[in-house]
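Appendix C reproduces, verbatim, an entry submitted by the partner laboratory led by Prof. M.T., so that reviewers can inspect both the input and the predicted structure.
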Amino acid sequence: MFDGPSNNYIAFGIFYHDLLFKLYPDGNIDLVAPLKIASGGTGTATPALTAGSNISITGTWPANTIAVASSPSFSGISGSTLQLSSLGGALKIGSAGSVAADMLQLSNNSAAVGASKFSSLGTRGDTISGINGTLFNLADAGVASLVAFDLNGNLGLAGTLQLGTPLAVAYGGTGAASFAAAGLPQIVANVDLTGQTTAISGTTIYTTPAAGFYRASGMLILTATGTGGTITGVMVATLAGSSTTIPMTAGMPAAGSPNYGQGSIVFYADSGTPIKYGVQFSGVTGSPTYDFHVRLEKM
């Protein structure tokens, strides 16, 4: 039924039934009953929102305000805890909800790393931290940074980096668990003496962890001449159960010319025995002064 226009609107309805809606000249439509859900309406004259878990709703329709009521959390997967925190946008995955025991923490408000987006990844205080645009840091509890990678892939060490398996030769490593296993010598002791004026008796610089080959290299440098005799650098090692003195450097004339003596020796030392250095004087007269330098390598 069409009825109107009257009273500034046009009324629409069905014969012998109530009015359905009114159409006004400004285009507004006044429904007599709420629009059904099937037609895109709410089906009620007093629509309202229903709050879910951890959600709060304030105000009245249609000007409601929706907010998170509390920090949501989830727990119960094999004793582990997943924590979503509203404090700075942190994501923590750990055990028993303990921050100290967290295995993974993503945050942008950690005091340790400033505005980093990745705060920590580790166990029992060990962390990987500080992706702040310049550095990627690995640290231990109470240590600012042990290992740092910059964005170009460069590695800087403030501590010790330990790999689970030996670094392959293709990546710059030896491919072995030790220098000896890789067939490479390793310096195990150093001696650098200056301003010496007398002979030096055997002085221990290294104790062998196992029997094996060692190489000692030495150099004497005369810094003030005497009037005669020779000065010789020696090493003392235990060979087949016998302590043996082995000349290392050529005899250096205490009077100069030449003003140095140098040499290198290889010997096989017994396990668990001391390796010593020494300087011998032979017929030295006057007051010579010398420097003595030794490098000991495990072959």
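The chain has no helices and 24 strands. Additional entries are available on request from the coordinating office.
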